[in-house]
Specification:
With about 375 residues, this protein is an alpha+beta fold. It contains 8 helices and 13 strands. The strands form 4 sheets. Strands 5, 6, 7, 8 and 9 form a 5-stranded antiparallel β-sheet that branches.
Length: about 375
């Protein structure tokens, strides 16, 4: 079917004299190798144009493969076949996938055999890599690394997201990050790509001292085709990416429909769920904050009521004391008035007694005088 990548070009039994083998005698003396090359190629265009430049020239492929095997010397035919597969993919852009079957019919074995061979299949794989920096010239660090990666012969169809400023992840206090992501096709296998990324980090001065700490350059493989890898050194897809907005936001720009084989969710689904959770958390915080404000408002109202009640009681007590003081003053005045009246009565009584005494005294004196007069009168 045209354009579906189902067309095949095959080369069988390419005979090459080369020097691959574990033993020194194999490297010194060499031996015959046979190569089968199967190439998956889109032949839609050459089928109509009949132009050699629109297809893969198998004569050129044979010459290239023979020269490559003659001019290299690997211990293992596995390595020879793998390296040849990568070089063919790089050399011939029309090849989408290639299988190399490398035969070693004269292998130095002590038993009788017909053939020894290995079969290696390779293709242009799609990789997504996260990039970040929060030390030094952040943008410069990222730009330099991505430029080197894009110019690598083992990489093609390089696409970058825009860079975004993000807050640090993981709780370590540090400067803000610049983050982004890139997508490209590569003939590196996942572990080779990991080594290449580590080399770029090292060249940028990356020091791995604090987990989730600051770094001059951070390069992480997010996806590699649809592979699921859980080794000690490498985990693909990247662990916990569904909780990292600084990863998902750039991926939304590059591949919103890409399926994560670990979570079984697309980038868009993970992004929407993360942001929905953030909104819910924000609402909850807002509700909690509003609730706290409402509680504080109600507490203030209660405090105000309590103060007003206390003020009323104070005013009432004051009024009561004022009334009591008035009553005391009135009582005191009444008592004083009563006392004055009593004193006046006493004074009157005293005056009366004094007047009575004076009258009596006067009467006594008058009596004496009269008595003397009588005595004198009658005495004469």
């Amino acid at each position: 079917m045209c354009g579906m990548g189902t067309d095949i070009i095959e080369i069988r039994g390419l005979k090459v004299f080369a020097n691959h083998g574990v033993y020194e005698s194999e490297k010194e003396n060499g031996q015959i190798f046979l190569v089968d090359i199967t190439m998956l190629v889109d032949l839609c265009k050459p089928k109509t144009t009949d132009d050699l430049s629109d297809t893969v020239n198998y004569a050129s492929v044979c010459e290239f493969a023979a020269d490559f095997l003659k001019n290299t010397a690997y211990d293992l035919i596995e390595k020879a076949a793998y390296e040849l597969s990568k070089e063919l993919l790089i050399k011939y852009n029309n090849i989408e996938m290639v299988n190399i079957k490398l035969h070693k019919p004269n292998a130095p074995l002590e038993v009788e055999f017909e053939d020894v061979s290995v079969s290696i299949t390779n293709k242009w794989s799609e990789a997504y890599v996260a990039v970040g920096s929060n030390m030094g010239d952040k943008k410069g660090n990222i730009k330099k690394a991505l430029c080197q990666l894009e110019n690598d012969d083992h990489v093609k169809d390089f696409v970058s997201s825009k860079l975004i400023k993000t807050k640090p992840y993981g709780g370590v206090e540090q400067d803000d990050f610049l983050n982004g992501a890139v997508c490209f096709k590569t003939v590196y296998d996942p572990y080779e790509l990991l080594d290449i990324l580590h080399e770029l980090e090292h060249e940028a001065g990356r020091v791995r001292s604090v987990h989730w700490g600051p770094r001059t350059l951070d390069l992480d493989i997010l996806f590699y085709d649809n592979l699921l890898i859980d080794s000690e050194d490498l985990k693909i897809p990247h662990i916990d990416m569904e909780n990292r907005d600084f990863v998902l936001s750039p991926l939304m720009e590059l591949c919103p429909e890409k399926l994560n084989p670990r979570t079984k969710k697309t980038v868009m689904e993970m992004y929407n769920e993360l942001n929905s959770a953030k909104r819910d958390s924000k609402k909850q915080k807002s509700a909690t904050k509003d609730g706290a404000k409402q509680n504080l408002k109600e507490d203030k109202k209660e405090d105000k009521k309590a103060v007003e009640k206390s003020d009323r009681k104070t005013a009432e007590n004051k009024d009561k004391k004022t009334a009591e003081n008035k009553d005391k003053k009135a009582d005191k005045k009444a008592i004083e008035k009563t006392d004055r009246k009593t004193d006046e009565k006493k004074d009157k009584k005293a005056d009366k007694r004094a007047d009575k005494k004076t009258v009596k005294k006067t009467d006594k004196k008058s009596g004496k005088k009269n008595s003397k007069g009588f005595i004198g009168l009658f005495g004469q």
